[in-house]
Amino acid sequence: MWGAKRFAREGGFYGPGMTNSPPAGEPMSGPMDGVRLRAPRVPPPRGRRGESGAPGSGATSDARPSEVRPSDAHSSDVRRPLRPRLTELRLSAYANHRRRVYRLGPVTLFGGRSGSGKSGVLRAYGALSRLGGGESVREVFGDVGGCVPVWARKDAQGRRGFRIGCTADGPEGPVTLDVAVQAEPRMRIVGERLSAGGTVLLETALRDPSRPTVDAAWYTGGSSPRVRAPFPDDQLATAILPLRVSGRTRGQRRALSAAEQMVVALRTVFACDPRPEAMREPVLPGSGLLSAGCDNFADVVFRTRAECAVRHAALVEAVAAGCAGPVVDLRAEARTDGRLQAVLDRGGGGTTALHRLGDGELRHLGLALVLLTGAGVLTVDAPREVPTALGALTLLADNFDRCLDLNQRFTLLELAVLMAERGHIHLMGTVSDDSWAIGLPGVTVVHLES
Predict the structure, then answer these.
(1) Residues in contact with 62: Cβ distance below 8 Å, sequence separation at least 6, in sequence order
(2) Where does the record place the region Disordered (predicted)?
(3) pTM for the full model?
């Protein structure tokens, strides 16, 4: 995948600076002249058992409580990543997960039988992301009944709830966040703890159930080690802390840095599940921002093809590797009614409209487009105060392998690993069968037991 490798090597990600590239379709000088793009060789399927490794390099985990451990303590001789990202997801009591700790690599796939909780892991990740973006707990957990563990029983006051958490690594080292949510009788966040380097930097607790607030205490490092104040019980205190703390002491600045790292790691998440039936339909020109179902695929291709030839060349190569027949270009054509229709250029004047492609080919197109673009081309709530070069997008792909053949799966994973090496995008998906992905370089496979 020469085009994708060149795009990654040049630090490619979608941002304002990308518009200086020559539009696609214009001649490009350089090593692309005379190069014939070829699909990557598909390695044979690998066995599911008996292969292991370190996370991020073809690792496999059965995710049993006895086999997983919390993140190691911060070490001064370890080079910290520049872009914050989640490295661990903890589901202490959530749905059918109990005391589970899942290590996350830049590219992570969750496999297992139906009912093992694969989709629940992605929902928990998405919920933490929305809480980090400032949404209220009632907006995030609409179906709160599905989040409460099935074995949970009400206490003497009739209360039930669930607990989730995560670890974000970045310039400040590993930062852990744990959240306890009360689902009944009234939904609220009853406890939260933000820690780094063995120090609790922020902690909240419900003191008076009759009030809509929790008692929050954050680390100062001064004469008074902690400062207390009431925080609303329907929002994540970590997301609010930068708005409430001045940062006058060294301890406060440490707490603020940890909170900001966690929020940045959580914020930019895009859940994508391409819908082939919607991608086949022509669309009206719009914002050029890709929707979660890739319904407006033609509109986004019309925009990206004109703005960055290098990225578009990499997309065409990925499309050619996953579609039957030759593909020399991908473009959007305007119809007489003003709508846009995406077509594959087969060369020699022949084209194929998207409504003639199979479901697997269309899902391959949608996921490849997301992997090769950034938050600027997606309908995602990215933190505007963070420079694009310092942020990273996390793609959540439930049923990643649905309708995809082996060649398409390997092509997309190769592209995901390539882009993850640049640090601009991470992939977290679920698959019905994880045997084909075990042992692939740069891919962490977590097998869930029922």
Answers:
(1) 447, 449
(2) 1-81
(3) 0.81
269-299 pLDDT per residue, tens: 999 999 999 999 999 999 889 999 999 999 9
CB 220 within 8 A of CB 249: yes
Are residues 20 and 110 both part of a single domain? no
Is 59 within the bounds of a domain? no
End-to-end CA distance of the chain, in Å?
A: 37
Instruction: Look at residue 438 and tell me if it is in a domain.
Output: no
Q: How far apart are CA 221 and CA 78, in angstroms?
A: 25
Q: What angle do CA 258, 233, 185 make, to 5 degrees?
A: 135
Reply yes or no on whether the pLDDT at 243 is more than 70: yes
Single out the residue of 438, 77, 391 nearest to residue 264, CA to CA.
Answer: 391
CA separation for the pair 411, 41 (Å, rounded)? 9
Burial level of 297, CB count in 10 A (0-12/13-18/19+)? buried
Question: How far, in Å, CA of 394 to CA of 107, rounded?
Answer: 9
CA-to-CA distance for 179 and 175, rounded, in angstroms? 14
- The domain boundary residue, chosen from 267, 289, 304: 267
Rounding to the nearest 10 degrees, give the CA dihedral for residues 135, 99, 445, 57. Answer: 90
